[in-house]
Amino acid sequence: MIDLKKITLKYRNGTVALKDMNIEIRKGELVFIIGESGSGKTSLLKLFMGMVVPTEGIVMIDNQDINKMNASHKREVLKSMGPIFQEFKLMKGTTTIENVMLGLRFYGYDNNYIRTEAINTLKKVGLSHKANIKIEDLSWGENQRVAIARAIARKPKIIIADEPTGNLDHDNAVNILNLLSSLRDENTTVIITTHATHLIGLNSDVRVIQLKDGQMIGDEKRVIS
Amino acid sequence: MKNTGYFLKETWRIFKSHTFTNILSIVSIGLILLMFSLIFMGWQFTSNIVEIVRNEAEIDVYLNNSDFENTRDSIANFPEVREIRIVEKEEAYAKMEKILGSESKVLTYFDENPFQSYLEIKMNLDEVNSLIDNIEKIENIDYIRDNRDILDRIDSISKVLSTLNHLIILAVGITTILIISHMIRQGIYQFKDKISTLNLLGAPPLFIVAPFILEGTLLTVFSGIISALASILIINMVFGNISGTLPFLPLPIKNEMIAMTIYLNMSISFILGILGSIFGLMTSKN
Hints:
The complex is a heterodimer.
Chain A: E1 2-10, E2 16-25, E3 30-34, H1 41-48, E4 56-61, E5 64-65, H2 71-79, E6 81-84, H3 96-102, H4 111-124, H5 140-153, E7 158-162, H6 170-182, E8 189-194, E9 206-212, E10 215-222
Parallel strand pairs in A: 3-8, 3-9, 6-7, 7-8
Antiparallel strand pairs in A: 1-2, 1-4, 4-5, 9-10
Helix pairs in contact in A: 3-4, 3-5, 4-5
Chain B: H1 4-17, H2 19-56, E1 58-63, H3 68-76, E2 81-87, H4 89-100, E3 118-123, H5 128-136, E4 141-145, H6 148-190, H7 192-200, H8 205-245, H9 254-282
Antiparallel strand pairs in B: 1-3, 1-4, 2-3
C-alpha cells in the first residue's frame, strides 16, 4: 500500500528532516508514529501525501511513485486519502457541516447524499448538535473533531492523522482513537502521529514506529489481547 | 451542476471578503462600459445617417441640347444606375421653392424660370466615379453635378467613429480584463490556504477555480447591467431632444438601438468577465 524506500528529506534551509528511512505499510494496518517534536513525524506524513518531495528515495503508493504521477492521477490518490491536519485546515466562515460536506463534494455524489453522510459522521464524532455552528464559534477540540469528521466521511482507503488527539480531553481522545481504529474493519489503513503514547495501549494489534532526529529507531507490532 | 449552490455561496464569500473594493470595481467597469456604449451609439447614429445619404445619393446631369429621352435611355443601360428620370424645369423650380422655404419669394424676381431640365440619377455611392466616367463619354453632356464632397466627409466621420469604436472596444477590453484579473488575484491570495487545502483533499482544478471565475463574471455582468440601464436613459434623452430640436435628422429605430445596447453590454461584459477571471487565474502565483 505505502512503501518508503531509502528516504532522505532535506529542507532548503539545510535541516535534515528524515534520514535513510525504509517503511512499508500494508492495507488495513493501524500505525502509530511516535517521537518528540522535531523528530520528523509530520514530515513523514507530508511525504505520504506528496506534499514534499524527498531529496533521495521514492514514496510508493499502491506500487506507484507519488512524485512521478501526473496531476490527475495524484488527485485520485489524494481523493482516496483522509488527511487530518495538525492545524486542521478548516474553512473559516463556514459551518461545521459545510466543512464536512466539502470533503465529499468532488466525488460526484448528489447533495442529499453528501448532507446525510456529513450528519452521520458528525454524529460519530459527537458534533451533530453543532452542525450549523460556524467553525470560529467552536472550541479548539471541537475543531479537531470536525477535521476528523471531514476525513472519515470520505470513506478513505488511508487515514493520515497528524496529532488527532492533541487538543482533546481524555474521554474524547479515547473516543476518537476508537473511531479511527474501527475504520480498520472497512480495510482502511490508519496512520497516526501522536505524543500521547499512553493512548496507544488502548488499541489492539497496532504497529508503533518510533522516530528520533529524523531516523527510525523503533518499529514494533503490539498485539494486546 | 450538483455543486451550483456551493459555488454560488463561495462566490458570495469571495465577494464579501473585499466588498468595498468589489463595489468600486463594478462601478468603474460600469462606467468604462458606458463610455463604450456612448461611442457605439454615436457610431450607430452616424452610420445610420451615412447609410440613408448613401441610399439617397444622386447626381444631376445637364445636357447641351434637349435630347433628354434618348440620353436617359443611354444612361439607363449603365449597370451602376439604380433609377433615372427626367426632371422638367417646372419641377426644378418647385424643388428650389421647397428648399428655400420662406425665402422662395426671391424666385419671383426672375421674369422666366431660371432653371433647366435635367436628368436625376440614383445609384450606389461606391460606383459614382465609374458612372460619371461613363456619362462624361456621352456627347451631349454639358455638366454633371454631384455631392461627393459632402458624402465623402460624412463617410469619413463614420469611418473615424468606427475606428474609434474599435479602439474603445480594445481599451475597454484590456482595462476590464486587468481590473477583473486583479480582483481575482486578490481573492486567490485571500483564499490561498483554502485552495491549498482543497488541493490536498484532491479537488479537481475546475472545482477550485469555479467560484473565482463566477465572481469575475458576475462582477462584470453587474457592471454591464449598470451600463445598459444608463445607456437606455441616455438613448431616451437623446431621441427626445433630437427629434424635438432637429426633426429632419434621420435617426435609427429607437427600440432596435436599445435592444442592441442591452445585448452588446451584456455579451461584452460576460465575455470580458470570463476572460479577466481566466487571466487572473493564469497570472496568479498560486
